[in-house]
Design a protein that fits this description.
Its main location: other. The chain has helices at residues 20-24, 68-90, 192-200, and strands spanning 6-8, 12-13, 17-18, 28-29, 34-35, 41-42, 58-60, 96-97, 102-105, 110-117, 123-130, 135-137, 145-146, 151-158, 166-174, 181-187. The chain is an alpha+beta fold and 210 residues long. The protein is rod-shaped. Mean pLDDT is 79; it is low at 202-210.
C-alpha cells in the first residue's frame, strides 16, 4: 500500500443513513482505514444518523502520471502527424500544360516538346506512350521533375527506318491533376513527295535566254 492509495465509500442507505464520505464523495486516505485479513477495508466515517458507517469501501486506483518527456514526445508526434495530414490534403496539385498540339517528323528526325507546370507542386513525368512503336523518347532524371512555374522538354524521335507515313498520338503520363495529355504526331516517311508536289504546281516563270 502506498501513500497515494485511497478508498471511496458508497453507502447512501436510507435505513442505515448516508455516510458523510459518500455524501461529500471525498477520498478516504488509506492511513485512516482499517483493513481486515480478507482485504476488506471498512469505512471509518459516520452516517447522518450519527452512527458508525462500517460499510465496505471501494479502493481507488490513482492515475499514473506520465513523465514529462513522454508527454512532450506524444504531443510532438501528434503535431507531426497533423502537419503531414494537412500537407497531404491541402498541398495543391501539379498541372501539366503543352502548347504544341501537333507536329510532323521525317525519318530519323527528332524534336523537343516543351512541357509546362502550372501547378503548385513538382510535376513528375512518369512515361510517354505512343500509338506506334516508330516513335520513341526517353525520360531521364534531368527532365523527369518540373518545378511549379517552370518548364522542361521531352525529346521525340521518328524511326529512321520507317517505310510508311504514320498519323498517331503521344500521351504524357504524370502526376498532373486531370487526364493525361495527348498530342497529335505525324511521321512523314516520304517528305520529298511534298517537294515534288510543290514543283509540279509552281507558277514561277523561268525567263528563257534568247
Amino acid at each position: 500500500m502506498t501513500a497515494n492509495d485511497g478508498y471511496r465509500c458508497k453507502n447512501k442507505s436510507v435505513q442505515r443513513g448516508t455516510c458523510e464520505y459518500a455524501k461529500s464523495e471525498k477520498i478516504i486516505p488509506a492511513s485512516s482505514v482499517t483493513t481486515y485479513s480478507n482485504n476488506e477495508a471498512i469505512c471509518p466515517g459516520n452516517t447522518d444518523h450519527n452512527k458508525p458507517c462500517g460499510a465496505v469501501l471501494e479502493k481507488v486506483i490513482p492515475q499514473k502520471k506520465l513523465p514529462w518527456m513522454m508527454i512532450a514526445l506524444s504531443s510532438a508526434t501528434v503535431l507531426v502527424f497533423a502537419v503531414a495530414m494537412w500537407l497531404f490534403l491541402f498541398r495543391g496539385d501539379a498541372l501539366l500544360r503543352v502548347d504544341q498540339t501537333s507536329f510532323i517528323l521525317s525519318p530519323g528526325q527528332s524534336t523537343k516538346v516543351e512541357v509546362f507546370n502550372d501547378g503548385e507542386v513538382n510535376l513528375q513525368l512518369d512515361n510517354v506512350e505512343f500509338s506506334s512503336d516508330k516513335f520513341s523518347t526517353e525520360i531521364t532524371d534531368d527532365n523527369s521533375a518540373i518545378a511549379p512555374g517552370e518548364s522542361g522538354y521531352v525529346r521525340v524521335k521518328f524511326s529512321e527506318n520507317a517505310q510508311d507515313s504514320i498519323k498517331g498520338s503521344m500521351t504524357i503520363h504524370s502526376n498532373s491533376a486531370g487526364e493525361p495529355v495527348s498530342i497529335e504526331i505525324i511521321g512523314n516517311a516520304k517528305p520529298w513527295r511534298v517537294a515534288e508536289k510543290l514543283n509540279s504546281t509552281s507558277t514561277i516563270l523561268v525567263k528563257e535566254k534568247g
